[in-house]
Amino acid sequence: MTAVKVVSASGKAGKAVDLPEEIFGAKVNIPLIHQVVVAQEAAARQGTHAVKSRGLVRGGGRKPYRQKGTGRARQGSTRAPQFAGGGVVHGPVPRNYEQRTPKKMKAAALRGALSDRAAHGRVHIVSGFIEGDVPSAKDASAMLVALLAKAGNSTHVLVVADREDQLTWKSLRNVAGVHLIATGQLNTYDVLVSDHVVFTEGSFAAFTERAAKQQEVKQ
After folding, report:
1. Global pTM?
2. Cβ count within 10 A of residue 112
3. Which of 37, 92, 171, 199 has a beta carbon 3.0–4.6 Å from 135's, enabling a disulfide?
4. Contact predicate 129/9, CB 8 Å
5. Of 168, 173, 157, whose CA–CA distance to 122 is shortest?
6. Average pLDDT, integer, range 93-111
C-alpha cells in the first residue's frame, strides 16, 4: 500500500496517509479507460448542428424553365442541391451523441486512472493552500509550485476540494493551469489530462469513503 504525506499550507510534510489499494492500486485497463473517455466526450457534444434540405429552403417553387427544348438538363426547382442557394443533401441533423456507460465501468476507469497517477507519484494530499482565512491566489499558487517542484514540471494540475471549502475555491478558481473540481465531480477524463492530482484532506476522506461504500454495495 502506497503512503502519501499530507502537506500543510506552509509546505511542511505531516502525517502519512495510506492510499487505499482497491482505489489507487487497481489494474489499469486501457481499453476500458478509452471507452469511458470517448463516451464522456461524446456526452459533452451539444448535437444541435443542422442544415436545411431542399424542402426547408425558402423559394424555388416555380419550375426554372420549361421541361424540353432548351438543350439543358431538366430542373424542377432552383433550390435543388446542385444550385447555389439550394438545400444540402444528407447534411447533419440534431442528434444525441450520448453513449450508454454503466456506473461500474465509469468507476473502474476512474480507479485505473488514479492508480496510474499514484504509481508515478502524481497523487498528493494537502491540509490546505492558504495560511489564514483570507483567500489569496498568489499564496495558493506559490504553495502549489513548491509542492510540485520535486515532482517535475507540470502544466495542468487537478485540484479536488469540498464544495464547502470556499477558501480553496476562491483562491484557485482563476489560477492558470489549475482545474478545480468538487469531490463528486472527479472523473476519468480530468485525471488523465492532468499531470498531477491534488486532494485536500477533506475531499480525500470523502472520496475514499464514498468509493468504499460503492465497493461494499457491489459485494
Report:
1. 0.81
2. 21
3. 171
4. yes
5. 157
6. 93
